[in-house]
């Protein structure tokens, strides 16, 4: 990985107030948190997204972290690939500096996991991005939402708002995921994995 160049951090979700509190939108919530930490808000971008240019995290010694664009596609989840590809082209971002933040059914609720590449696990947003880019080899921050209770269809589960108990924990989960993004960008994937994958 080169030491220069802009990062692109994309949080996945569906547009509009109807979906804003859904489990499927937790990636978008994390990007809002990253923008807030930099004292800015996302604004409409011609790449069918809302985006902001920020500094991510702090480097050792206290200097501001690398330049990054944080963004949420304004398309529906299953069409995320077009906006992501357009943002990468517009901001000249290489695929090794693309980091996608998304909800993950196969990770316990409240946990954050990090990886590069691999399958999409049935996630339509990831599938769209991999298809548009022609590669799966991008970084992911996977935000655990757990499996649906009983026989509930996973598709229904992800499109429901977080429950009452989950909402109490949600600020901590969003904070942890934002911290994970910052650590990947400032310290690299391996060190971030060592921190976030270790038992508490």
From TrEMBL:
<keyword id="KW-0378">Hydrolase</keyword>
<dbReference type="GO" id="GO:0004045">
    <property type="term" value="F:peptidyl-tRNA hydrolase activity"/>
</dbReference>
<dbReference type="GO" id="GO:0005737">
    <property type="term" value="C:cytoplasm"/>
</dbReference>
<comment type="subunit">
    <text>Monomer.</text>
</comment>
<comment type="function">
    <text>Catalyzes the release of premature peptidyl moieties from peptidyl-tRNA molecules trapped in stalled 50S ribosomal subunits, and thus maintains levels of free tRNAs and 50S ribosomes.</text>
</comment>
<feature type="binding site">
    <location>
        <position position="76"/>
    </location>
    <ligand>
        <name>tRNA</name>
    </ligand>
</feature>
<protein>
    <recommendedName>
        <fullName>Peptidyl-tRNA hydrolase</fullName>
        <ecNumber>3.1.1.29</ecNumber>
    </recommendedName>
</protein>
<comment type="function">
    <text>Hydrolyzes ribosome-free peptidyl-tRNAs (with 1 or more amino acids incorporated), which drop off the ribosome during protein synthesis, or as a result of ribosome stalling.</text>
</comment>
<feature type="site" description="Stabilizes the basic form of H active site to accept a proton">
    <location>
        <position position="103"/>
    </location>
</feature>
<dbReference type="GO" id="GO:0006515">
    <property type="term" value="P:protein quality control for misfolded or incompletely synthesized proteins"/>
</dbReference>
<feature type="site" description="Discriminates between blocked and unblocked aminoacyl-tRNA">
    <location>
        <position position="14"/>
    </location>
</feature>
<feature type="binding site">
    <location>
        <position position="124"/>
    </location>
    <ligand>
        <name>tRNA</name>
    </ligand>
</feature>
<dbReference type="GO" id="GO:0072344">
    <property type="term" value="P:rescue of stalled ribosome"/>
</dbReference>
<dbReference type="GO" id="GO:0000049">
    <property type="term" value="F:tRNA binding"/>
</dbReference>
<feature type="binding site">
    <location>
        <position position="78"/>
    </location>
    <ligand>
        <name>tRNA</name>
    </ligand>
</feature>
<dbReference type="InterPro" id="IPR018171">
    <property type="entry name" value="Pept_tRNA_hydro_CS"/>
</dbReference>
<feature type="binding site">
    <location>
        <position position="19"/>
    </location>
    <ligand>
        <name>tRNA</name>
    </ligand>
</feature>
<keyword id="KW-0694">RNA-binding</keyword>
<dbReference type="InterPro" id="IPR036416">
    <property type="entry name" value="Pept_tRNA_hydro_sf"/>
</dbReference>
<keyword id="KW-0963">Cytoplasm</keyword>
<feature type="active site" description="Proton acceptor">
    <location>
        <position position="24"/>
    </location>
</feature>
<keyword id="KW-0820">tRNA-binding</keyword>
<dbReference type="InterPro" id="IPR001328">
    <property type="entry name" value="Pept_tRNA_hydro"/>
</dbReference>
<dbReference type="Pfam" id="PF01195">
    <property type="entry name" value="Pept_tRNA_hydro"/>
</dbReference>
<comment type="similarity">
    <text>Belongs to the PTH family.</text>
</comment>
């Amino acid at each position: 990985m080169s030491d220069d160049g802009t990062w692109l951090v994309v949080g996945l979700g569906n547009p509009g107030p109807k979906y804003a509190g859904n489990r499927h939108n937790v990636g978008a919530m994390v990007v809002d948190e990253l923008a807030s930490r930099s004292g800015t808000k996302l604004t409409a971008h011609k790449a069918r997204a809302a985006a902001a240019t920020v500094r991510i995290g702090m480097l050792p010694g206290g200097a501001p972290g690398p330049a990054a664009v944080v963004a949420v596609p304004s398309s529906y989840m299953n069409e995320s690939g077009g906006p992501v590809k357009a943002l990468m082209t517009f901001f000249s971002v290489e695929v090794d500096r693309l980091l996608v933040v998304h909800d993950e059914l196969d990770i316990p609720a409240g946990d954050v996991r990090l990886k590069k590449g691999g399958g999409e696990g049935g996630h339509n947003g990831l599938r769209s991005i991999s298809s548009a880019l022609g590669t799966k080899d991008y970084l992911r921050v996977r935000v655990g939402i757990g499996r649906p209770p009983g026989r509930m269809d996973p598709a229904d589960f992800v499109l429901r708002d977080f429950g009452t108990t989950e909402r109490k924990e949600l600020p901590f989960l969003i904070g942890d995921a934002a911290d994970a993004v910052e650590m990947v960008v400032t310290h690299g994937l391996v060190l971030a994995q060592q921190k976030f994958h270790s038992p508490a």
